[in-house]
Design the sequence.
């Protein structure tokens, strides 16, 4: 990939948290990766985990949506402060943007957000985007920021969305339930059936799961943008893809045929 390409990195709660709090070691690894990535690309981060960051300070029952919203309100500034403390070591600074999917429906609002992003990137700042949890509940109800990050990638003009997940790629079936599941390395098109069947599953269990990721991929493929799913626990696959141009593990969704 060319230098100064724009990429969006999305990291999920499972990757950033451990036993109901932020995982320091994983955040350190992530920030080290982001700092190197920023030296070669324009980088926008979409980060979940505000609830994990706030929970140690107010241990309310997380089964209730309003409690999760309140915990997220406590955790969001903590999360950004943690990122900034770790980025400081690399001489980098983060900024916070709280957006909702609706902001992308309004041309005026998305235009202003894009101008903010452009200015931040021009000055080498890392914009960190999260859903505005007090007014929007998609992330808190459906589990993650996969949809938001796909919109961020498209409307803020990134060529690639990287999803750092608790799973290291997209398999032909759920690898946590099937030991013979095989990872797909490159995917050019999402079968609408996969979205429908999987949709029901994700609705019943009310988690992000693979469906929201496939929906994100579908959205981007239709707009000629790429997406890559890689492990957020072990960053070696994504590092090798982004820094050495070698696709060892992880799944690339792209319309381009090599
Ligand atoms: P994250 O929190 O990292 O964003 P999720 O836990 O919401 O990710 O979704 C990933 C999970 O989706 C995996 O751990 C896996 O159990 C499940 N899954 C279901 N089907 C598949 C599949 N075909 N390929 C990969 N993962 C799948």
Sequence:
């Amino acid at each position: 990939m060319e230098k100064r390409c724009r990429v969006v990195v999305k990291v999920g709660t499972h990757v950033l948290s451990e036993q109901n709090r932020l995982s320091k070691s994983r955040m350190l690894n992530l920030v080290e990766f982001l700092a190197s990535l920023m030296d070669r690309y324009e980088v926008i981060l979409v980060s979940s985990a505000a609830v994990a960051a706030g929970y140690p300070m107010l241990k309310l029952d997380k089964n209730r949506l309003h409690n999760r919203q309140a915990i997220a309100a406590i955790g969001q500034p903590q999360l950004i402060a943690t990122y900034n403390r770790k980025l400081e070591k690399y001489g980098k600074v983060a900024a916070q943007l709280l957006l909702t999917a609706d902001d992308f429906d309004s041309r005026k609002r998305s235009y202003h957000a894009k101008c903010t992003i452009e200015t931040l990137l021009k000055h080498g700042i890392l914009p960190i985007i999260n859903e505005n949890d007090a007014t929007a509940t998609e992330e808190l109800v459906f589990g993650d920021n996969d949809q938001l990050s796909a919109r961020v990638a498209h409307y803020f003009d990134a060529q690639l969305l990287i999803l750092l997940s608790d799973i290291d790629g997209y398999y032909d079936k759920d690898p946590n339930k099937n030991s013979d599941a095989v990872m797909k390395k490159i995917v050019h098109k999402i079968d609408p059936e996969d979205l429908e069947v999987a949709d029901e599953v994700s609705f019943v269990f009310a988690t992000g799961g693979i469906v929201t990721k496939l929906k994100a991929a579908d959205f981007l493929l239709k707009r000629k943008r790429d997406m890559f799913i890689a492990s957020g626990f072990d960053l070696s696959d994504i590092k090798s893809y982004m820094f050495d141009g070698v696709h060892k593990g992880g799944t690339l969704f792209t319309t381009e045929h090599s």
The chain has ten helices and twelve strands.
